[in-house]
Amino acid sequence: MTSEEIALTSKEELNAELKALLRKAYESGIDVEGGFECRNGVEHPDWDVIVTEVEKNEHSE
Question: Where on the tree of life does the source sit, at the highest rank (predicted)?
Fold first, then answer.
């Protein structure tokens, strides 16, 4: 399943999309912690993504 393509033009936009994806997965009961291999074929680089939960501070959004 793929979401509609969104043109990202900044790290802030990338962060917002990642935040939304992680929240959606968490709310669906998926354990989002751990490592994920993102294999992308020959036309794009491959990535290894590590997700860890961090302790909230008093100024957390």
Answer: Archaea
Q: Which phi and psi angles does 33 have, rounded to 5°?
A: -80, 145
Helix (H/G/I), strand (E/B), else coil: 5: coil
Q: What is the pTM of this model?
A: 0.75
CA dist., res. 61 & res. 48, Å (int): 26
Cβ contact 38:32 at 8 Å: no
Instruction: Give residue 2's pLDDT band: very low, low, confident or very high (50, 70, 90).
Output: low
Instruction: Give me the count of residues in the chain.
Output: 61
Please report, for the chain, the start and end positions of each structural domain, with discontinuous segments joined by +. Answer: 31-55
